Amino acid sequence: MVATGRRVTAREEKRFRMRNPDxxxxxxxxxxxxxxxxxxxRDSSVFQGFHSRGVALILGPIRAVPGPVTHHPTTPNAAxxxxxxxxxxxxxxxxxxxxxxxxxxxxxxxxxxxxxxxxDSERAVREGDGLAPTVxxxxxxxxxxxxxxxxxxLRERDGELPIIVVTAEREVDTAVxxxxxxxxxxxxxxxxxxRLLLSVRRACERRRLVDRxxxxxxxxxxxxxxxxxxxAGGAMRELSRQVERVIESxxxxxxxxxxxxxxELVARAIHRGGPRRSGQFVAINCAAIPASxxxxxxxxxxxxxxxxxxxxxxxxxxxxxxxxxxxxxxxxMSPATQAVLLRTLQEHTVRxxxxxxxxxxxxxxxxxxxxxxxxEVDAGRFREDLYFRLVxxxxxxxxLRDRVEDIPALVTHFxxxxxxxxxxxxxxxSAEALDALARHAWPGNVRELENVIHRSVLACRGxxxxxxxxxxxxxxxxxxxxxxxxxxxxxxxxxEVVTLRELEQRAIRKxxxxxxxxxxxxxxxxxxxxxxxxxxxxxxxxxxxxxxxxVA
Amino acid sequence: xSASWGGNSFPPGMPTLxxxxxxxxxxxVSREFLIELVALFVSDVALRLERLSDAVKLRETxxxxxxxxxxxxxxxxxxxxxxxxxxxxxxxxxxxxDWGASExxxxxxxxxxxxxxxxLQTVGETPPASKQPKNSESQGAAxxxxxxxxxxxxxxxxxxxxxxxxx
Lengths: 552, 167
What we know:
The structure holds two protein chains of two kinds.
Chain A: E1 2-3, H1 10-19, H2 25-34, E2 56-57, E3 62-64, E4 83-85, E5 91-95, H3 99-111, E6 115-119, H4 122-126, E7 135-139, E8 141-142, E9 145-146, H5 147-157, E10 163-167, H6 172-180, E11 185-188, H7 193-222, H8 224-227, H9 234-247, E12 253-256, H10 263-273, E13 281-285, H11 291-299, H12 316-319, E14 324-328, H13 335-347, E15 349-350, E16 359-360, E17 364-369, H14 373-378, H15 384-390, E18 393-396, H16 407-422, E19 428-429, H17 431-439, H18 445-459, E20 464-465, H19 472-475, H20 483-488, H21 500-514, H22 519-526, H23 530-539, H24 544-551
Parallel strand pairs in A: 5-6, 5-7, 7-10, 10-11, 12-17, 12-18, 13-14, 14-17, 19-20
Antiparallel strand pairs in A: 1-2, 3-4, 8-9, 15-16
Helix pairs in contact in A: 9-10, 16-18, 21-22, 22-23
Chain B: H1 19-28, H2 31-57, H3 61-78, H4 81-95, H5 99-120
Helix pairs in contact in B: 1-2, 2-3, 2-5, 3-4, 4-5
């Protein structure tokens, strides 16, 4: 929030509407008036805030508060404020050796919704916990050390960090030198609150813009097809249709699929294509984080919450506010964290470890797992109530063996990608090599294929990867079975009568076994479509686990 | 703000406190916060003054200048105008290695701190700022008369005194 005497621009009004879609302008205006604010004539005067002395511009998100609120940082004397300013996701690193100035600056920044991490010396900055701030405020007169050293250090760590320098009035020349060294803005002591908040807000906006541009550049550079997935076969078209159905809504999506099938890429596509695209996409792999640290990673912690928590740290939920959070391998989440996650999803608030404040979060949740989550619930390892919260719309990602038609496109993609990195001269694969790839079961899916292509490129001495260049286990794959072979084994002894249902089951089991679990190729052997086979598997109550056992 | 004033007196009309700044802090954050901030300021400045005194006694230019500079920052944040001005003057004298004048100014800084501390003690006792009439740059309603030692040279007698000419 920034105090201002000017009228709000149309752009600011638009931003307010975007950030507060559930708050009507009339309600907000009424609340301002009840709080004794100086409200102007236009509807946009809703931005004019709670200061009785003048006007204030509310640019951050606000939230309706039911009933009177007695304590509020910006309206201590207001009788009935109806809105409170929500904390932003922006973190300000405050480097100031004077305790009085530090305490005052911190209070001002926190009242505007910023999270403040403070350091009292150059040494404290260097020994900090590596938290990446959105913006830094650095006092140039840091005791016996120069604030320039701090600026250099912060710049080395994060070249895009906007740094606001604070200096004594008579050191304006020094401030100019700091600007030349890359500082974003400078303020003179005594620092004016409104000037400080305005500068910090602008710096945060600049930072977000820079990050956004970098994200877009990164997305464009790392993947074809708008940076999502490669392949145009039937399975991928079906996947694309399913993603389209959920992309515009906030429905909780659960991505199911084996490791390496591209669950994170699809989650990114959901984020990028939806209304939250301007927010951050944050991914956390629950399997990669020890159970004891999962809560801290997800929900953040306060300084001093536990041994080693020397600074306040934002969790994934807070960092993803306004955006999308991918809970990858959610089946690996500890029971304790599951309980806290459930509460967070119900209340739409988080409480940092060691903290007492409920912080509102507005995040779209996408989860992913390679496990049979329903089976985990049945086994008592995953909470059923959480399951129903997370798995509103499950999307099954096809394994690579079920979309062998996409292998040539994937191979081309990986060869192009490797060409940039290794400058190799390989142009493609021989027909035999491609055939061998199509017959492989690909338990590691696309990730495994990329690995195989990389190895083959290194082994290849010509312009085309031959069968001999492939890893040995792929070279030895024999030609697949015939339909007759499958059928002969099913009838059993001459005096045995098999029901048609049993016969069908046997045929399917046999086909799956011979194709090492490839539903696509099993369907071909059986002379039916893949969708039909999936439907028959469901009707015959054959789960993915059962298929796994058949293959084994 | 450059300390162009001479002798041992303060610039004409300079109040002890910038009451407007204290009121603003109270309104922007809270009354309880202001009381806490004042308590921190008093204890912090007392500590810094001790260190500053030691540095001046030992003629440690860099340390003394740094402590005087830090005092200015704290005083500026809270709007303690005269303390800030004296600290700034002391920093200039120390940087010039004018230790005689530095010691005299240090004594003035100490007595100014005693005055400021007594004025600031009233912050928690007065009614909330929002109920008081606004009066920026006031001297502090309950401020006692400054008990500053009489200047050895009156500013009116040496209006254009330069720092190098001071004791």
